[in-house]
Design goal:
This protein is of the alpha+beta class. It folds into 2 domains: 83 residues; 230 residues, BirA Bifunctional Protein, domain 2 (2-Layer Sandwich). The chain is 37% helix and 20% strand. Strand 3 and strand 4 form a beta hairpin. The radius of gyration is 44 Å and the shape is rod-shaped. Bound molecules: 3,4-dihydroxyphenylalanine.
């Protein structure tokens, strides 16, 4: 009972009411914390009261201390309640702010596709691998010997002018044709040979259908008794798989130094079925590759006896095949990296 008479100080009576009022006004956890510190912190009102204990008569101190403790407990309870309320309020507003619409369609991760040249190259490899061809890749920097001389195109041969060559140093160049791979393979491997050699080639040439760098696919078959009929049969199979089941091929006489006889191969136009249309310029045929029977001299240059073995070779531009197959008008589309163009080749 005695305790009731112990006053905490003239204006301490409504500390609780004051704390209650300020806590109610606090608009955030941070503000509430600051208010709490004003009462319960190291420099707060409770600490101030305890410091004032010195001025109180010794016999009253225990009772005073008890009162201050009771007050502290009350305040702690009061702030705990406000903190809980504040937490809940803030959580609610956070949830409202961060509300997500789970029915909204997601953003799909964009998937890339193979470049049309890579695709076409792969399709060609698949077709010829099915006929037993193996892939052999030669170097892009070649010697004049492999690119020209061994292919029966000596230094003064006019056929060297057919291909505008990028020379690197005396005797070395960027290969102008994958035909160089024929020589490299025949030097390494004895017949029977069934080789496919895809790769980049380079020529100083630039217009709607020519580019200084493009891709070729070379084919070479060497064995006993190989004839031009084998070449045509294989090309028919290639055209039917690559373009249309109704495709036909036609051979026209031509000239390449490394083949004798040489032919240019046309495929019936898949766009009009051979009737004639703007794509085939009304002829019904489209030229797709060069080919021929491997020239005896080329076989001899590689140590293959031309009286025992014969062979055929062919070479095609991968860009040209892709342009025909997909109806692409300009060769530059392949290297411009326009996503709108490339996106059309996704699976
Ligand atoms: N190398 C020739 C060129 O780039 C294409 C070619 C024609 C390759 C006839 C051959 C072939 O293997 O037999 O124009």
């Amino acid at each position: 009972m005695e305790d009731e008479n112990i006053q905490l100080g003239p204006d301490q009576g409504d500390i609780v009411a004051e704390a209650q009022q300020e806590a109610e006004q606090a608009s955030s956890s941070r503000a509430l914390y600051e208010t709490k510190m004003k009462f319960l912190g190291r420099t707060g009102k409770i600490t101030a009261l305890l410091k004032g204990m010195r001025e109180i008569a010794a016999e009253n101190r225990p009772a005073f201390g008890k009162k201050v403790n009771a007050l502290r407990e009350k305040l702690e309870e009061l702030f705990a309640a406000h903190e809980a309320r504040m937490k809940e309020k803030e959580l609610k507003s956070k949830l409202a702010r961060e509300q997500i619409d789970v029915t909204m369609p997601g953003r799909k991760a964009k998937k890339g596709g193979l470049h049309p040249i890579t695709r076409t190259r792969q399709e060609l490899i698949d077709i010829f691998a099915g006929m037993g061809f193996e892939v052999f890749e030669g170097p892009e920097i070649e010697s004049e010997y492999y690119n020209f001389t061994a292919l029966n195109t000596p230094a003064d041969h006019p056929a060297r002018d057919m291909q505008d060559t990028f020379y690197i140093t005396e005797g070395f160049l960027l290969r102008t044709q994958t035909s160089a791979g024929q020589i490299r393979l025949m030097e390494q491997k004895k017949p029977p040979i069934k080789m496919l050699s895809p790769g980049r080639v380079f020529r100083s040439d630039d217009d709607a259908t020519h580019s200084p760098m493009f891709h070729q696919m070379e084919g070479l078959v060497v064995d006993k008794g190989i004839t031009l009929c084998d070449l045509q049969g294989m090309l028919d199979e290639f055209a039917r798989t690559m373009f249309s089941s109704l495709s036909k091929t036609r051979l026209r006489p031509s000239y390449f130094p490394f083949t004798e006889p040489s032919v240019e191969v046309d495929v019936s136009c898949a766009a009009c079925g051979g009737k004639g249309c703007p794509l085939c310029k009304g002829t019904g045929w489209i030229e797709v590759l060069g080919a021929g029977m491997v020239n005896r001299r080329v076989l001899e240059n590689c140590g293959v006896d031309p009286d025992v073995y014969t062979g055929f070779a062919f070479g095609m531009g991968i860009e040209r095949i892709a342009m025909l197959k997909y109806g692409i008008g300009h060769i530059r589309s392949f290297t411009e990296n326009d996503v709108r163009f490339l996106e059309q080749f996704k699976d």
